Amino acid sequence: MTPDNPLAEFEISSGAQQGSRLLLYANRLAYQGGDSMETVPLAQLASVRVAFARDARKLNWAISLLVVALLLLAVSGPLLGWATALAAGIKEHSGRESLDSVLLTSFSVIGGIARSLPILAALLAAIAAGLGALFWMGLTTLSLNFAAVERSYAVRGRNPLLIQFAELVAAQLAARKG
Fold this sequence. Notes:
Elements: E1 8-11, E2 21-24, E3 28-33, E4 36-41, E5 47-53, H1 56-92, H2 97-137, E6 139-145, E7 150-156, H3 160-177
Antiparallel strand pairs: 1-2, 2-3, 3-4, 5-6, 6-7
């Protein structure tokens, strides 16, 4: 095998570094992404770690948004009924027209807001479902540790190809150190 042929290659297909590639050669590891390239001699590499993790913050946000959506949905019906009943009562007993028209307008606005709450609740529930899906997919992260620096490369989901690539890097590193 010539030194110019990579032993292994991994293309990052999702996440912040989407479209980038990691290339493992016999004596170096190369990262190519966008307009940049970085090459690190394996002699400089101290350790390799790969891990799958789920971000609990996404789950917390999803639960919070779902609770808010349910509260908005629960409040919208009674609020609309209350505003409609008060507006009807004012129309029935109109005595002073200026005060009655202000109250009628105010209750109509409250009724309009109450009618829009189920739509807002559905939107929040959809966002919560998206966050829940991102939590469930998780991230597989490859971490390369140098003397004083750590580089991390993450892809969405449990990615066995990144795990295999990390195993090859670790094997090559062990062969060079041993």
